[in-house]
Design brief:
About 35% of the residues lie in helices and about 15% in strands. It is of the alpha+beta class and about 190 residues long. It has one domain (about 5-175): NADH Oxidase (3-Layer(aba) Sandwich). The structure holds flavin mononucleotide (FMN).
């Protein structure tokens, strides 16, 4: 599918069919993540494919109480968890290169969005999930010291598509030369 079509059509999916994802498609989605750019090509991301229902149920309980993705991560056939290595992206010889310090969150976001867009290309829905108890999820997944879980996403065939969520107008988010100077004059 054309990349702009994928970007325009994609939406967060929270209702899934239990239908399995063919292994070769799942691997193509992981390959899309592996192709993503990262700080100095440090590739600090690691991926855990969770298929075990018991593990998915345990992870679901780490989501914030009213998180609308709680059911989705159990029902979708795959729950992909993204874990990042700390203290590498954005560092040189152990010293942060910028005032931002660790850049793993930025690289993780790019990789997960590659997953999301690649999945949509194959007719599969996803939903970035960030609101959960990270320490508890790390315990469940056996994440070692030096690594931290950033996000997870269910991956599966959609059962139901929601209405599209709105976006801010360009006049509010796009500037010319200086912050606050609108690029598009109303
Ligand atoms: C970093 C991040 C964290 C998110 N965490 C959650 C979450 O915990 N639960 C959830 O249901 N959706 C979560 N979302 C999905 C957003 O709510 C969704 O992307 C946003 O409302 C826009 O809707 P759309 O993705 O359908 O365009 C998250 C999205 C991002 C990018």
């Amino acid at each position: 599918m054309d990349v702009m079509k994928v970007i325009h059509e994609r939406q967060s999916i929270r209702k899934y069919k239990e239908k399995d994802i063919p292994e070769e498609i799942l691997m193509e989605i992981i390959e899309a993540a592996r192709r993503s750019p990262s700080w100095a090509n440090t590739q600090t991301w690691r991926f855990i494919i969770v298929k075990d229902k018991g593990v998915k149920e345990e992870l679901s309980r780490t989501l914030t109480e009213n998180n609308p993705a709680r059911e989705a991560i159990i029902k979708a056939p795959v729950l992909l968890c993204l874990v990042s290595q700390k203290g590498v992206a954005g560092y040189r010889k152990g010293v942060p290169r910028t005032s931002k310090g660790d850049y793993y969150m930025y690289d993780a976001g790019i990789a997960m969005e590659h997953v999301v867009l690649a999945a949509w290309n194959f007719g599969l829905g996803t939903c970035h999930v960030g609101a959960f108890n990270h320490e508890e999820a790390e315990r469940i997944l056996g994440v070692p010291d030096g690594y931290t879980i950033v996000a997870m996403t269910p991956i599966g065939y959609f059962d139901e598509r929601p209405n599209y969520t709105p976006r801010k107008p360009l006049s509010e988010i796009l500037f010319l030369d200086r912050f606050g100077v609108p690029y598009i004059k109303k």
